[in-house]
Amino acid sequence: MEERPQPTVTIEEHDEPLQFAAQSPSLLCTLEQNNIDVPYQCREGYCGACRAKLVQGKTVYNQEPLAFVRDGEILLCCSKPITDIVIKLT
């Protein structure tokens, strides 16, 4: 079985795209592992502090967030990319 390449995470404010590691629990953890500071509080989709704009691509939630999420936004603490994505940190 051929292994699928991991999705790429491109951040509008940064030069280098990041690889999303298969074992990473969320986009927030991937960003933290790459020393990119992102505001957060709950890590479970309750507060909405880690909200970001999804410019391109698709993500899925580990669990449906309780915080209000507008169209075109994602919560980094409880989502993972399923395609290459481009995000804008708010």
TrEMBL record:
Q: Does the keyword Aminoacyl-tRNA synthetase apply?
A: no
Enumerate the UniProt keywords alphabetically: 2Fe-2S, Electron transport, Iron, Iron-sulfur, Metal-binding, Transport, Ubiquinone
Q: Name one GO molecular function term.
A: metal ion binding
Q: Which PROSITE patterns match?
A: 2FE2S_FER_1, 2FE2S_FER_2
Residues annotated as domain 2Fe-2S ferredoxin-type: 7-90
Q: Which cofactor does it need?
A: [2Fe-2S] cluster
Give the matching NCBIfam families.
PRK10713.1
Question: PANTHER family attached here?
Answer: FERREDOXIN, FERREDOXIN-2, CHLOROPLASTIC
Family note: Belongs to the 2Fe2S plant-type ferredoxin family.
Provide the protein name: 2Fe-2S ferredoxin-type domain-containing protein
What are the top taxonomic ranks of the organism? Bacteria, Pseudomonadati, Pseudomonadota, Gammaproteobacteria, Alteromonadales
